[in-house]
């Protein structure tokens, strides 16, 4: 059984969970996915995906569906050529939908903008011309570090239009994290903004780009800067260029660069089990096929009437697949909101749902649990009656949060889709289908049509119903990652070696008595905090990079709101080389504050530990391995489990005494 199971919120109530919510007859009759979709996909899996791929425009139609000759580096639709931006935008204009609103943008400060498909097409073409004029060629990498403004969507699509893979770095990452990602991808251009609005204030972004580039070693020639906040920015002549000086002036005519289906579309860094983030890379044809199919089927999208809203930031895969590519490929009208849910008040999200008549809402369990804490009076103050499908992503959703989401936000009538997938899978893999599947609170339930997933035991055999094990994807899928940028070996080792030939997801899972799949959290050293992936090792190396720290161990402890929280244990250095360390009564508190801030600058504020405990020793096996399981017990206030394999069994007593003190 995976070790992490005990800390998973999905486990509460698991044994008693028997409620199901079958779709209403009315919903079922109109379901976009169609009642026979599973049978069709099962009868001819590759034919099913080919049919989905043909819903896109191909400049050169494909004849090969799956190329498995270089597995696990699979290829899909390999002899076809297409362009992602053409499919996301121009195609809809050509079909007569140019006046349809693509983006209903809501700034945190109350500013708003509407962008139609025709306007978006022009803007993307102009930006593509501007990128070319700045020297970006097909195949060159572009780093994007932007807030949630319409230009972010334009920037991604402009890159795609010229076949320049984008590498989006979440705006909450530090200059150091940005630097390492720019270096790893050898990006030649960075697109950023002066800043964005968060929590009621302008939050600068450009300084982090300046700092990142000042660290040196990059291939960056230009920085293209969007003006959003109007704040002061430092300017490097010759390198920095204002977006408004080059994009509006560029021609709105642009011939897209038709690329092979396997041409890289983007790189997106995510945390793995080592300190170094992995550059997950995705290609074009298969990724677009699966993001568009899943966006249609899983959200029951009716592009003419729906108003869709996914609250994810473009810095994460959910923003790539379900803010940028999926919705636009399907010609949807969507809301994009710049800021935080509680600015200027805690009803902001519900006010937005009411203002735009949102019909489909896709968010994360951590946000739902936060709203639960704020109380149901808040959403009750707004008209949410337009909502008809609710989605959840990023971490297990516990049945209580699921029920609250359905009752309070969904008026007890909306289907909920709990969607399991990963940066690596590119698109949704396991989820109920609204109007087709009878939903079960807390379970992601069934692999989508065309996807084959299993729960395997240690030996790689499928588990029986009622049993737990490891989630694996046993057949290749169109949107699968094609590798880790620049590190083929790590790709093979991380995903394809645990069960040879089968994709190992790194998640624990269980099949219930009906065979439905329940996700139980990570089984490796990856934490999931508010739906964001963080690596224990990465935070440990950030801590030991501080001169006061000799050794550090980090665990993800269960947290009611954020799913998991980062808890760190550190041993401080002794001896003379330690300078400036606080002394006296509140020394530990001051050390802890400094170390939290240090993690914030090394990785980003999201990685700051909830608590840091200064300890004299860490629990280790006789071979010197830190026993994180025991630290997790401590962090979650549980009785400490079996300590017989510890080199020094007294260590845990000391740590527990320390934990009793506030840190
Ligand atoms: C977790 C986010 C349970 C899981 C799209 C996975 C989930 C990791 C769910 C990927 C879900 C995502 N139920 N767990 N519905 N969705 N996860 O790469 O542990 O940021 O491996 O992709 O999030 O996180 P990532």
Automatic annotation (TrEMBL):
Domain AMP-dependent synthetase/ligase, chain residue ranges per copy: 92-485
Q: What InterPro entries does the annotation carry?
A: Ac_CoA_lig, ACAS_N, AMP-bd_C, AMP-bd_C_sf, AMP-binding_CS, AMP-dep_synth/lig_dom, ANL_N_sf
What residues bind Mg(2+), as annotated?
A: 544, 546, 549
Tell me the domain of life.
Answer: Bacteria
Instruction: Identify the residues that the record assigns to the Acetyl-coenzyme A synthetase N-terminal domain, covering every copy.
Output: 36-88
Q: Is Nucleotide-binding among the key words of this record?
A: yes
Q: Which Gene3D superfamilies match?
A: 3.30.300.30, N-terminal domain of ligase-like
Q: Which SUPFAM superfamilies match?
A: Acetyl-CoA synthetase-like (SSF56801)
MF terms in GO: acetate-CoA ligase activity; AMP binding; ATP binding; metal ion binding
Q: Which residues carry this modification: N6-acetyllysine?
A: 625
Please tell me where ATP binds in this chain: 394-396, 418-423, 507, 522, 533
Task: Cite the EC number.
Answer: 6.2.1.1
Post-translational modification note: Acetylated. Deacetylation by the SIR2-homolog deacetylase activates the enzyme.
Start and end residues of each AMP-binding enzyme C-terminal domain: 538-625
| Swiss-Prot/TrEMBL GO biological process terms | acetyl-CoA biosynthetic process from acetate
Among HAMAP family, the record links this protein to: Ac_CoA_synth
Q: Which NCBIfam families match?
A: Ac_CoA_lig_AcsA, PRK00174.1
| Protein name as catalogued | Acetyl-coenzyme A synthetase
Q: Which gene encodes it?
A: acsA
């Amino acid at each position: 059984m995976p070790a992490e199971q005990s800390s998973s919120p999905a486990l509460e109530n698991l044994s008693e969970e028997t409620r199901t919510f079958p779709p209403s007859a009315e919903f079922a009759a109109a379901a976009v996915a169609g009642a026979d979709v599973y049978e069709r996909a099962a009868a001819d899996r590759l034919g099913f995906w080919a049919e989905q791929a043909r819903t896109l425009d191909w400049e050169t139609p494909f004849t090969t569906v799956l190329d498995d000759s270089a597995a696990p580096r699979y290829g899909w639709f390999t002899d076809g050529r297409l362009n992602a931006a053409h499919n996301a935008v121009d195609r809809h204009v050509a079909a007569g939908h140019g006046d349809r609103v693509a983006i209903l943008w809501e700034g945190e400060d109350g500013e708003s903008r509407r962008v139609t498909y025709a306007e978006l097409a022009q803007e993307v073409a102009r930006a593509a011309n501007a990128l070319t004029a700045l020297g970006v060629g097909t195949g060159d990498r572009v780093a994007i570090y932007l807030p949630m403004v319409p230009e972010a969507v334009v920037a991604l699509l402009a890159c795609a239009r010229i076949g320049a893979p984008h590498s989006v770095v979440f705006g909450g990452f530090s200059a150091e994290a940005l630097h390492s990602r720019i270096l790893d991808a050898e990006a030649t251009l960075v697109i950023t903004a002066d800043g964005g609005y968060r929590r009621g204030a302008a939050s600068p972004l450009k300084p982090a780009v300046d700092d990142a580039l000042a660290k040196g070693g990059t291939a960056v020639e230009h920085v293209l800067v969007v003006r959003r906040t109007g704040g002061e920015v430092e300017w490097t002549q010759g390198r920095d260029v204002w977006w408004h000086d080059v994009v509006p002036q560029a021609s709105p005519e642009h011939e897209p660069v038709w690329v092979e289906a396997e041409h890289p579309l983007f790189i997106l860094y995510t945390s793995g089990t080592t300190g170094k983030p992995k550059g997950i890379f995705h290609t074009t044809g298969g990724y677009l096929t699966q993001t568009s199919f899943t966006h249609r089927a899983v959200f029951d999208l009716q592009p003419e009437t729906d108003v869709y809203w996914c609250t994810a930031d473009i810095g994460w895969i959910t923003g790539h697949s379900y803010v940028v590519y999926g919705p636009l490929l399907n010609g949807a009208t969507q809301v994009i909101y710049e800021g935080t849910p509680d600015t200027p008040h805690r009803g902001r999200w519900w006010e937005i749902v009411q203002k735009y008549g949102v019909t489909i809402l896709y968010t994360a369990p951590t946000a739902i649990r936060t709203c639960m804490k704020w109380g149901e009076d808040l959403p009750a103050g707004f008209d949410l009656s337009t909502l008809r499908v609710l989605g959840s992503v990023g971490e297990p959703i516990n049945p209580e949060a699921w029920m609250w989401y359905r009752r309070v936000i969904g008026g007890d009538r909306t289907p909920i889709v709990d969607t399991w997938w990963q940066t690596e899978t590119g698109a949704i893999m396991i989820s109920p289908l609204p109007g087709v599947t009878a939903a079960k609170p807390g379970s992601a339930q069934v692999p989508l049509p065309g996807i084959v997933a299993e729960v395997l035991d240690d030996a790689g055999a499928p588990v029986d119903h009622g049993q737990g094990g490891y989630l694996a994807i046993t057949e290749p899928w169109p949107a699968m990652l094609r590798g880790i940028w620049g590190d083929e070996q790590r790709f093979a080792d991380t995903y394809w070696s645990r069960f040879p030939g089968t994709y190992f997801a790194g998640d624990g899972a269980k099949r219930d008595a009906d065979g439905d799949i329940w996700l139980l959290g990570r089984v490796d050293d990856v934490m999931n905090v508010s739906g964001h992936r963080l690596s224990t090792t990465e935070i440990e190396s950030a801590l030991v990079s501080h001169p006061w720290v000799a050794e550090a161990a980090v665990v993800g402890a269960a947290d009611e709101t954020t799913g998991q929280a980062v808890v760190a244990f550190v041993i401080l250095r002794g001896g003379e080389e330690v300078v400036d360390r606080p002394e006296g009564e509140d020394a530990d508190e001051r050390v802890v504050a400094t170390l939290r801030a240090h993690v914030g600058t090394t990785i980003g504020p999201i990685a700051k530990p909830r608590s840091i405990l200064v300890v004299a020793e860490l629990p280790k096996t006789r071979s010197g391995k830190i026993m994180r399981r025991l630290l997790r017990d401590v962090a979650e206030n549980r009785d400490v489990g079996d300590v017989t394999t510890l080199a020094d069994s007294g260590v845990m007593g000391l740590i527990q005494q320390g934990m009793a003190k506030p840190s």
